[in-house]
Design a protein that fits this description.
Number of strands: 8
Oligomer: single chain
Largest sheet: 4 strands, antiparallel
Radius of gyration: 19 Å
Distance between the termini: 36 Å
Structural class: alpha+beta
Strand content: 5-15%
Shape: globular
Order of helices and strands: EHHEHHHHEEHHEEEHE
């Protein structure tokens, strides 16, 4: 399975990020008083860790330790570009790019373990794989939200990775198993829930919404998707139109006719009648 991740190189024995114990010590020594320096060190450290080969059990532990620090950074960065008058000044644009890059690196850290598990490159147990799928989609969902709020394009390969992560979880019968996540109000979520949230939020056309409206729609999704069903088989449609995602593409979900789908092998049909 292909995912968009950087090349992994062997870590030096004395490297800071090759063991969770070293990462914990490094985090404890960082000072949050200087927000700019703190953010720079977290981002550079995460980038370095994401380009080093290591056992999955080390990577998952280190990634989980970084979550609180990264969330603190996001909270501080958002005030510089959310609910601000457009066009944004250069400083705010730089902060936006940093915010998106940090979200991308967090997703990458978990995507590495998914890629290694799918291709038998590392020993990744089912619990680690399940957590990695949920966390990767968690940060990719937020990346989609922020892209909509700043009216920016999403990175190339975004939809390919989202679809492939769901397919992997589905094929391993992990897609409906709950994962605890302290960063979300409902505290636990499944991979399928997150996949549905991403699909439905995309169909809501966030780039056409006001920032505040996009945020409200995003926050409502956990309740809304309870009334949405998805299936890898075509669901009956009275009007010969289907909301679908093409699982073997780098495309967002869209409305297709049967003619559009006749040569497509992998699809996920989205049934929204219950929500309507």
């Amino acid at each position: 399975m292909k995912l968009h991740i950087p090349e992994q190189i062997p870590a030096d024995r004395d490297d800071t990020f090759n063991h969770p114990r070293k990462v914990k010590k490094w985090l404890g020594e960082l000072k949050q008083a200087n927000m700019g320096d703190f953010t720079r060190q977290i981002y550079n450290g995460l980038m370095q860790m994401n380009r080093q080969a290591m056992p999955a059990k080390y990577r998952i532990e280190s990634m989980e330790m970084l979550r609180d620090a990264v969330r603190y950074i996001f909270t501080q960065l958002h005030k510089h570009f959310i609910n601000r008058t457009l066009p944004l000044p250069d400083k705010s644009l730089k902060i936006i790019h940093l915010n998106q890059a940090l979200l991308g690196e967090m997703a990458i850290g978990y995507k590495i373990m998914i890629f290694e598990a799918a291709n038998d490159l590392n020993k990744v147990d089912s619990k680690t794989l399940l957590i990695s799928c949920e966390r990767a989609l968690h940060y990719m969902a937020e990346l989609l939200l922020r892209s909509g709020q700043i009216y920016a394009d999403i990175p190339k390969g975004f939809w390919w990775d989202v679809h492939r992560i769901y397919v992997l979880a589905l094929n391993n019968n992990l897609h409906q198993k709950s994962v605890k996540d302290a960063e979300i109000p409902q505290k636990a979520v499944t991979v399928e829930d997150y996949y549905k949230q991403i699909l439905m939020f995309s169909l809501a056309r966030p780039h056409a919404l006001r920032q505040s409206d996009a945020d409200r729609v995003f926050k409502a999704m956990p309740d809304w998707i309870k009334h949405v069903n998805i299936s890898t088989k075509p669901l009956p449609a009275k009007l010969n139109r289907y909301y679908c995602s093409r699982l073997d593409s780098d495309l967002p979900p869209n409305c297709y006719s049967e003619e559009d789908l006749k040569d497509v092998n992998q699809i996920c049909t989205i049934e929204t009648l219950g929500l309507v």
